[in-house]
């Protein structure tokens, strides 16, 4: 109940029988609110304990997982790139050698139309060369 304009509003309090007392507990403090829980990237409050996580393209550094380091995607299978893989913080990009352009899938390389025409003139053939090239 509470008082508004000198009148009581709300339900009258009720007595709870002995043995049915409800104990209210307080939530543990959220460690992520202070210095991000000591986490470099993500902090999740797990019942009062900070649980750290890393952004995409990063992995935990060391056992505590509080610090994160970049994953070099280019080290494994050239990042899936047909020609050139360039590692960047949190990701990577694919690029192609001269005379080629990156395909819409951002990994394959396609022969540029000018280079394609020059290649056809050298071959003196009408066979259609492959457009998507992998190495």
From TrEMBL:
The superkingdom listed in its UniProt entry is Eukaryota
Biological process per Gene Ontology, one example term: endocytosis
Listed InterPro entries: ECM_structural_protein, EGF, EGF-like_Ca-bd_dom, EGF_Ca-bd_CS
UniProt feature coiled coil, ranges? none
Q: Which PROSITE patterns match?
A: EGF_CA
Q: How does it sit in the membrane?
A: Single-pass type I membrane protein
- Give GO MF terms, alphabetically: calcium ion binding
- Subcellular location as annotated: Membrane
Residues in domain EGF-like calcium-binding? 30-69, 70-110
Q: What's in the GO CC field?
A: membrane
Ranges for domain EGF-like: 31-69, 73-110
Keyword terms: Disulfide bond, EGF-like domain, Endocytosis, Glycoprotein, Membrane, Receptor, Repeat, Signal, Transmembrane, Transmembrane helix
Q: What is this protein called?
A: EGF-like domain-containing protein
Q: What is the lineage of its organism?
A: Eukaryota, Metazoa, Spiralia, Lophotrochozoa, Annelida
């Amino acid at each position: 109940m509470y008082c508004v304009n000198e009148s009581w509003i709300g339900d009258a309090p009720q007595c709870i029988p002995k043995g049915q007392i409800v104990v209210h507990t307080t939530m543990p403090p959220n460690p992520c609110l202070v210095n991000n829980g000591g986490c470099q990237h993500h902090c999740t409050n797990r019942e009062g304990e900070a649980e750290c996580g890393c952004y995409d393209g990063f992995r935990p550094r060391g056992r505590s997982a509080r610090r994160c380091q970049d994953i070099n995607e280019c080290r494994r299978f050239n990042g899936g790139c047909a020609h050139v893989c360039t590692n960047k913080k949190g990701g990577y990009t694919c690029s192609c050698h001269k005379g080629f352009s990156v395909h819409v899938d951002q990994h394959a390389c396609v022969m540029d139309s000018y280079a394609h025409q020059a290649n056809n003139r050298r071959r003196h053939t009408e066979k259609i060369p492959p457009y998507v090239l992998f190495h």
